[in-house]
Amino acid sequence: MTWSTREIAELAGTSLRAVRHYHEVGLLTEPARRANGYKQYGVEHLVRLLRIKRLADLGFSLPQIADTLDDRDHPEQALRTLDAELAATVDRLQRARVELAAILERRAPADLPVELAPAQASSLTDADRSLVLLMTRVMGPRKLAAYGALLRDMPADPTDGEFDALHADAGEDVRRDLAERMLPHVRRVTDAHPELRGPDDDAPRGARVLAETTNAAMHELYNPAQVDVLVRVAALLRTEH
Fold first, then answer.
1. Residues in the chain with pLDDT < 70?
2. What sequence ranges are listed for the domain HTH merR-type (predicted)?
């Protein structure tokens, strides 16, 4: 009894592409060909293919399958290794499901960690979201927690929208006036979250990298007038302390 490539793939419950790939990587030997040039697979090939598929369905990688198929001993270590890998995958997927549920419930942006998503996703501009995402890589856990608390409970800003709409060539008077009117709001926010003013001694890549990354992000994500306003607000805050 012999089968064509398509027939043996169907019998084994796999695809033509998979059978061809198994030939390419050396897991399945090439069968003899009929006079017309078509491959003819026998029982030995089908049994081998079924074993390959069985191990693949369990989660074995192709190199692991190659090591296991021709080893007559019970593959205990390979099975234990695979079990540990699958347990880690299950754990990761369970955490992902918990986070997806939170994202759906809060209608939070999918590209931000849930703990850093604001109560109103629309309150963040693209620049703001990009900055938050960058901070997750360089900011320490203490400040990230405070940052998340701030974003989830951001008080209303009397100048809401003015900063985002500020034109790059806005004049000196406009920038100074906006900075002065933003100051009370920024002061309230920083007073409510004093951890944001603390040292950066827990930053994963160090305080210097955090400062350099934040500075670079500010100058690339916001226009020169907006950066100038932020610098002015920071300077005004420093004069109060």
1. 119-123, 241
2. 2-71
